[in-house]
Amino acid sequence: MKLRNLIWKELWQRPTSLMTSLAAVALGVTALVAIQSITVFSEKKIAGDMRSLGANVLVLPPGVTLQDYYSADMHGQTMPEEYVTQLALARMAGVENLAPKLCVAAEVNSIPVTLTGILPRSEFEAKSAWQGMSFLSNPVGTDRGCCTKPVTDTSGETDLTSLATQRTVQDLGRNELILGADIAVQLGAGAGAELSLLGESFQVLTVLPPTGTIDDGRLFTHLHSVQRLSDSGPVVNVIEIMACCEDAAGSLITDLSQELPDTRIVTIAQVVEAQVAVNGLMSRLSWVFFGILLLVAGASIASVMYANVAERRREIGTLMALGASPGYVTKMFLGKAIILGIAGGGLGFVAGTVLAMVLGPQLVGVSVLPMPYLCGVGVATATLIAVGASYLPARRASRLDPCLCFNEG
Amino acid sequence: MFQLNNVTKVYECRRQTVKALNETSVSIGDNEFIAVVGPSGSGKTTLLSLLGGMMAPTSGDVLFRGASLYDLSLAERTKLRLSSLGFVFQSFNLVPWLSAVENVQVPLSLAGESVASQQQRAGELLSRVGLSDRLSHRPSELSQGQQQRVALARTLANDPQVILADEPTGNLDPDSREQVMNLLAEFHSEGRSIVMVTHDQFAAQYAQRPLNLVDGTIVDSRDVSSAA
Question: Which domain holds residue A395?
Answer without folding.
Answer: 3-47+280-405
